[in-house]
Amino acid sequence: MISTLHIKNIGIIEDLVINLNEGFNVLTGETGAGKTLIIGALGIIAGGRFSKEMIRTGEKYSFVEACLFCPENPMAVDGNIIVSREIYSNGRNLCKINGRLVTVNELKDFMVNCINIHGQQDNQNLLNPAKHIDYLDGFIGGELEVKIRYEELFKRYNEINLELSKNYGDDKEKERRLDLLNYQLKEIDNANLKIGEDIKLQEEHNIMKNSEKLQANLEEIDACLNENAVESISNSIRCLEKISNCGEIYEEKLSELKSIYYEVQEFARDMSELKEETVFDEQDRDEIEKRLDEIYSLKRKYGNSIEEILDYKAKLENEILEIENLEETNNKLKKEKEIVKNEMLIICEKLHSIREKYAKILSEKINNELKDLEMSNSVLRVNVNKEEKFNSNGLDKVEFMICTNKGEEEKELAKIASGGEMSRIMLAIKTVLADVDNVFTLVFDEIDTGISGKAAKAVGEKLKTISNNHQVIVVTHSASIAAKGDYNYFISKNTINNKTYTSIRQLTEFETIEEIARISSGDITEVSIAHAKEMRMAS
């Protein structure tokens, strides 16, 4: 059970310590005092979701710690296990069990066996037929051990289907894929690509685009060199030859000028050749543009360069080879799938038989509880039907059907039950399941929603009965339920220096009667006190 709950910086709760007890713990107080925040803190320590908006204004983190009295648990120290969770505004999350860091999922897996919280979400689950099988299987318990083997097979069954889909196990899909791969391979092959040709073609195309400008300038260069520069240097050489015997310096300069002459002459020949190359045929230009368009189209489909396209081509060839040799692999998978499927079908028959048997027992037990909860005219039936497609629970679909009045036909819960009826149906289910599960602490948040009078009294009596074997923690606005409490707590809030604070205290017997009187009539008067004492004595 939870012996102590410590909460810091959640909503209007700054720092709160609650000492809880075995049996029936009732939490009451005015609206907005922080009752729901306490239930929220229990959800957080149980591994539930947390929104950073829940952190108290001005604080950087929230903290929840619970001391669990579990003397039979091997993890317990002096019979106690301490679990805690710190959540920071930056998203950091620290969970601990007996001081050892654990993940949120590990905390959740541990706490699922320690605490069960019932809130409005449970009522929503009850309206969802997909959740009904969980209630039935939870009631059946150990006899469904065969389901473990089914889950293993179901996992393998899905893995095989995934492998077959990846391996084109469907013959039509395989043929479609082969057609696509062969089309792509043929398209790349027909292009006969060569590494670097796109760069070379682009250079040629650039030259072609600038041919007029190139031609004009190269002609001028050719004229300047051949008609002026070469002739001028040649004349200069002849002059130096005439005076070369006049000194060593003139012989050296003659030699240098001859070297320059040969270089300029060579350079002039190169420029003349380049000039000739700038004359292009329009057909050549069209062919280059067509080839560049073809290469661009392939790049857009298969890679950013010719190298990448050729790499993709190699992958195509490998995949085609793999597909053409997949038949043997797929045949093995199909045979295994058939074996797995047959074993699953056998187990599904066993599961169906077990569920049908226990569905009748569960229906009977829930209906007995409903009678105690002032729903004697209601008849609930747990319906088990087979489906064609395997799911995580087998081939069964479980749905709770109900008839709330004699003579009417049964219908889905969602179409017939009111909020108050839904709360009582859920309580009936929780009562039945409480007898078969090992969770010691049961938490009910406003289980009295939509009910009053005799129904509320019946709910209080039922919760009291559950508390004989479980620690029960209830948030309520019902005087009938509060009157049944073994331990009553009052939650209040006050404002100091413009900040709101939540506080809690365990009530004395006299204070408990006053609180019951306040809830039942809104005022504490002699009449309401007398009525509260009467309700208390009846409990």
What does this structure look like?
With 539 residues, the chain is an alpha/beta fold. The protein folds into three domains: 1-114 and 439-539, Rossmann fold (3-Layer(aba) Sandwich); 120-148 and 338-435, no CATH class; 173-324, no CATH class. The chain has 18 helices and 15 strands. It has helices at residues 35-45, 104-111, 120-127, 129-140, 146-166, 171-191, 197-209, 211-243, 248-277, 282-302, 306-324, 327-372, 413-416, 419-434, 453-466, 479-482, 509-521, 526-538, and strands at 2-10, 13-19, 24-29, 61-69, 80-88, 93-97, 100-102, 115-118, 379-391, 394-403, 411-412, 441-445, 471-475, 487-496, 499-506. The strands form three sheets. It has a six-stranded antiparallel sheet with strand order 2-1-4-5-6-7. Strands 8-12-13-3-14-15 form a six-stranded mixed sheet.
